[in-house]
């Protein structure tokens, strides 16, 4: 019986459009009849419309009454909606009677009243499903004051909360809290819902929220439900990154070490206002001129990325500090720069300071020394640094201690000692995070062992060989 | 003295109004068609070019992790059971009849006629867990054991071709049909080469001790792609390219003039005939001219320090050995060559495998490992992908004193260029007969799809229209092994 009632309740959002349509149509026809005698409704037709409006209103009200008893809606809003709905239905039934009695004037007034009640009911109904601020949200959001440096964005309030606001709060908010879960504020978010916390800080893969998001869209529990606007890949990446990094409310982008994908997204969404505003096509044009003029090879990293890879190693004529200076115009777009075997010196490396997005840098077999490395200390995104066969030594490594994302450093044939590189590794490796991952891996491995099925056949290979088995033969020869 | 442009001038004089109009229309048509076929002609939005082929994709589909590839092709088919896939159960079964449940209904090349039926053949060689990753590598490869943490071993390779030549073709082009482009040609077509003074796809060959199966030049063919993308075989002994020097009395500036005039003449012919092969010829003349200086510099191994030669185990630089070729391969990728393919023959161990396999291993082990180490310390391994492996594996059943060809399982390793190091991918059944369907199986098409992905290429989107159909390297197959990419 429960399922039938469930179905009746769920019909409400469908049926609700019928009385709206019929009543509004009736109003429109009556107004048209007042304006032009040609369009005047004749009595039998008015009768049909009035009766169907009343029937639809009654059916809708009945379903609505059932639904109100099932959903997790804001009780005040629901009772208001219910009362207004009952008034609308009553007025519609009254219209039928007045029509029968042909009390023209009262009929007209009642119709106007019914339409007003209908509008109010509809509005509150809309607030129930789409959230109270649905209408106002459609207007462009008041500009948030964002920090100029994208690295200083507060991850939760500037990036995560807007996503949740847009995708989740209509069902998990103050108006409607399905599964007793509310996500509209940080305090509510922390509370979680009837199945517990929405997120496990530091582990997106075990977070209920991400679990639901990652379920196939056909799945009953997939979120947002099928038919509602879905999360984009970027939004999922952002959520995963934020949860994995500890789901902290105050942390800034720079503190959570964004992955390459997140970085790419940030760069497109929140262009660094310190960088010259330039559209990608003009960057490519400048790159093309530079390529011809300077003689380096410049390539767009990938069709889906707005960044450049520059190879000066294979360039002719030979590249030096002056040629490197020419690249400053597009410095912010450079992702990978190969200056190996070129004539760059420590002075030339000052031009690298503005290459904030640099991930890979080759300076092998150049004349650079420890002094030049100080210009690299601001390259916070650097992942690979090649210094082999140069004069750098332990003193130079001190400048690299702040490069949190450095993963590979090539110091073959330099004066860098193992002690110095070990010290750097100590600084750069986030041991807390590594340890947490190791613990998780251990736990997962145990889980796999606990759940794996084994069929033990003893030593046999195949049944046909049971008799043929003899002790292992000695190795051949 | 004869004016080299004599014929051209004559033609110019002889042009009537009608021929002029006709030729112009053809030329416009040629230009339009040329720009359709050749994106560099319309290159205006992106970084511009100097006439060099920049690839049909201009930029990869997604962020590439590999820019260059060195394939150490172990021709003949190394036994996976004695290199990277230890099978204790097979050893235990040594000399016993091979379980029929494995082989029933299967095609076996020459073993069908074994006199006393199929017998299991164990491996007499021990395996060791190596490095932090604990990968199992046979003791016949002591140097490879030292790079265990840098390589990804794939044990679930399988192919469709059981004979050497077609199996090589399948490994290169994903098809045994003649006229299909090889992997190197596809990457060159898609991405172009970084170097403009060396071919983008170079093949080197070395031999094992015995009489080995020949390698046909069709293996590095560009197939239906324009022939400028085909592999160029360098001689591994002596000078890599013959006849590079100028004849007496000809200096480089005269040579330059000659090439320029030839380009004009060929250009006229290209406009007339609309044949892309003429464009190839123009490009090849230009390249050959540049190679007159680049190749001697490349082949000059005298500047390589003794320590490097010792690392590779090179006794006599430029002697055509596998080790010398490995060093040459490193020098080639350093100079911007996109694809270097080293064929080393000597793995076809049908008989006396217990003596011949260790000898074969000894010839390649040190240099293969040295190549990875050398690339790594130079920071090149980050975007250079090294592959080591044959065209198929060998049977867990004995064939006299050796093993036969086997397509259901073989092992390769890969290093660098976005391949996750220190992992073993895929596995075979307990006797090493067949790969397991555990989601990590790696068909040759899957390998191609994965390698292209490392290059930032979506294997479903790099196509070439030929005879009315869009062809791709993986045909209608190929599943990217995401687990081995990082």
Layout of helices and strands:
The complex is a heterodimer of chains A (477) and B (486).
Chain A: H1 2-10, H2 12-15, H3 17-35, H4 43-68, H5 75-101, H6 104-130, H7 134-138, H8 155-167, H9 186-191, H10 208-214, H11 233-244, H12 260-269, H13 280-294, E1 297-302, E2 305-311, H14 321-326, E3 334-338, E4 360-362, H15 370-373, E5 384-386, H16 394-397, E6 408-410, H17 418-428, H18 431-451
Chain B: H1 6-14, H2 17-37, E1 68-75, H3 88-92, H4 100-103, E2 127-130, E3 135-138, H5 142-146, E4 151-158, H6 164-173, H7 183-191, E5 201-206, E6 232-233, H8 252-273, H9 276-299, H10 306-312, H11 322-334, E7 339-345, H12 353-377, E8 384-389, E9 393-399, E10 402-406, E11 410-415, E12 423-425, E13 442-443, H13 444-454, E14 464-466, E15 469-471
Parallel strand pairs in B: 1-7, 1-8, 4-12, 4-13, 5-6, 5-7
Antiparallel strand pairs in B: 2-3, 4-11, 8-11, 9-10, 14-15
Helix pairs in contact in B: 2-8, 8-9, 11-12
